[in-house]
Amino acid sequence: MIFRLVSRRSHHETSITALYGAIVAQARNEGFYVQYEVPDTVAGRFDMIVLHLWLLLRQLRASTAGQSLAQGVFDRFCRDMDHSFREMGVGDLAVPRRMREVGEAFYGRARAYDAALESTDPEALALALARNIYGTPSGGLAGARRLAGYVRSAAMALATQDETVLAQGQPHFPHPDGIEAN
Questions:
Q1: What is the pTM of this model?
Q2: Among candidate residues 75, 103, 85, the one with its CA nearest the CA of residue 16
Q3: What angle do CA 59, 65, 70 make, to 5 degrees?
Q4: At residue 129, does pLDDT exceed 70?
Q5: What's the CA gap between 134 and 128, in Å, rounded?
Q6: CA contacts within 13 A on the Cβ side of 48
Q7: Which residues neighbour 82 within 8 Å (Cβ) at sequence distance 6 or greater?
Q8: What CA–CA distance (Å, rounded) separates 144 from 136?
Q9: I need a surface site. Which of 6, 51, 143, 150 has the fewest CB within 10 A?
Q10: Beta carbons within 10 angstroms of residue 109's beta carbon
Q11: Measuring CA to CA, which residue among 30, 20, 28, 75 is closest to residue 47?
Q12: Is the pLDDT score of 8 beyond 60?
């Protein structure tokens, strides 16, 4: 019995690590920073991780089996952010404040992206991305419109994936090349 619990837990942790690794790998895709003109800064890379985290968690939470995986991936993200702050030299006393800011940023963006993706306004998602990723409320929407097309494609790709494939830590995100503005 105990071996079965350990085996399940280690498989679960392996899946969480693989899912988070896939998010980070996709967020680091050069195409976002070159073709989509996402700022290649610490903030821009953070926002791309948050965007892909949101996409994956949105899909995982749609199924009852994915609930614990979703929480595990989010916890892994938080541990990664904590570790990154400490590596950047943020002091122990300041890390909790920074982590609170990370949580607020994630949940604020998640609410904005959820509302925009469900909106009947075709520009809503591009505007939310422009505001959160590009730092502009309405100007320079070309990259944000293309990124909105990518987000819609990624959401559809994740929605059509088999739950067992996701549970094994193998999400499929579309390649950013070739996706047009939406």
A1: 0.89
A2: 75
A3: 50
A4: yes
A5: 9
A6: 26
A7: 95, 99
A8: 10
A9: 6
A10: 20
A11: 28
A12: no
